[in-house]
Amino acid sequence: MTDMTGDGSVRASDPEKHLVETAPRKGQATRRGGGDPSTRGRTTISDGVVEKIAGLAARDVLGVHAMGSGLSRTFGAVRDRVPGGQKSVTRGVKVEVGEVQTALDLEIVVDYGVSITDVARDVRENVIAAVERMTGLEVVEVNIAVTDVKLPEEEEEEQRESRLQ
Fold first, then answer.
1. Quick one: which of 25, 94, 143, 156 is 20 to 30 A from 13 by CA?
2. Measured between alpha carbons, how far apart are the two ends of the chain, in Å?
3. How far apart are alpha carbons 48 and 46 in whole angstroms?
């Protein structure tokens, strides 16, 4: 005679017999190799991945006009106009990635009239949240250098130049 236990295993009524397990139910995973699967192996995240995440997160903040210094933006504008060229989301972002931590340096251009301290705080919060959520790395610091302020007249000049080409 056998008794069915709550976990789906079969127990012999004779106390001297050992526990006999039935086959796993449909949809139930069978563990092999011992231990948690998440601990079997290493995951490495390249600097470029963190740079892209940080660049996109920084650009999402209201008041950030562009990323990078004047020279990198100039070269980037030329690269963007070349057929087949892609916009660089990593422009203005430098990172150092360790095994469990990362540090970031950002260069941003802010729109005229916004509070630079508020924009920097919002950028820092958004970048830290995005990088930590997506990579699991601890962000130890986000240094922000404001390299320029975009004036309203400069935007009008850029629009005129782009129409003339």
1. 25
2. 89
3. 5
The one-character DSSP state at 37 is G
Q: At what angle do helices 47-59 and 116-135 cross, to 10 degrees?
A: 140
Residue 138 has pLDDT above 90, yes or no: yes
Q: How many other C-beta atoms can be found within 10 angstroms of the C-beta atom of residue 25?
A: 7
For residue 46, give every residue at least 6 positions away whose Cβ sits within 8 Å of its Cβ, in sequence order, or none: 97
For residue 65, give Cα distances in angstroms to 29, 46, 55, 146, 151: 50, 27, 12, 11, 10
DSSP 100-153: SEEEEEEEEEEETTS-HHHHHHHHHHHHHHHHHHHH--EEEEEEEEEEEEE-HH
Instruction: Kindly state the tokens that stand for 6.
Output: 């709550």
At residue 162, does pLDDT exceed 80?
A: no
Report the C-alpha gap between 77 and 89 in whole angstroms: 12
Write out the two tokens for 75: 């070269």
Coil, helix or strand for 44? coil
Is residue 73 a contact partner of residue 147, using CB atoms and an 8 Å limit?
Answer: no
DSSP bridge partners of 142:
104
